[in-house]
Amino acid sequence: MFETRTLNPIEQRTIKYLPEQITRDDLRPTEQINEGRMRSLAKQIEHNGLWTKPILIEASSMAIMDGHHRFHASKLLGLKRLPCLVLSYDDPNLSVVSWAGGAPFDPARILEAANSGVLLGFKTTKHSFCGDANFLHLPLETLK
Question: Of 30, 76, 79, 103, which has fewest CB within 10 angstroms of its CB?
Fold first, then answer.
């Protein structure tokens, strides 16, 4: 029989998370973006020639939690696969709040946006992840 317990803060931060390359078209946006910010980010990524930060996605729905601008920038760059951390809203290293006031935000609303295609407004949610994820230095050519 397995015993379940709550991890203490030190244990939570020592869980290793490994990015997975996910086909871009499988990901489901949940929030609107700022077009100018996205284009600027695409130029920056292209100039560096590297992908350095994984997109956070929800495991069961493929909903984008964090990384909408990077997701859309990847389209401009012609990338087909994206490095993602596949998480669940019950992960002890993940929290989500509203950008407006910092109140807790119901993940069900985010999943509904992913499923319906009716996106939440720009910067509606703020996902914070405190797990141990490796930094990336992936050449863009490997993601095409």
Answer: 103
Going from the C-alpha of 69 to that of each of 43, 64, 72, 102, the distances in angstroms are 12, 10, 5, 21
DSSP string, 28-51: B--B---HHHHHHHHHHHHHHTEE
Write the CATH number of the domain with boundaries 14-143. 3.90.1530.10
Domain boundaries, the chain: 14-143
Q: Which residues pair with 85 in a beta bridge?
A: 56
In the chain, count of helices (H) and strands (E)?
4, 10
What is the per-residue pLDDT across 34-54, written as a single tens digit (0 to 9) for each? 999 999 999 999 999 999 999
**Which pTM value belongs to this model?**
0.87
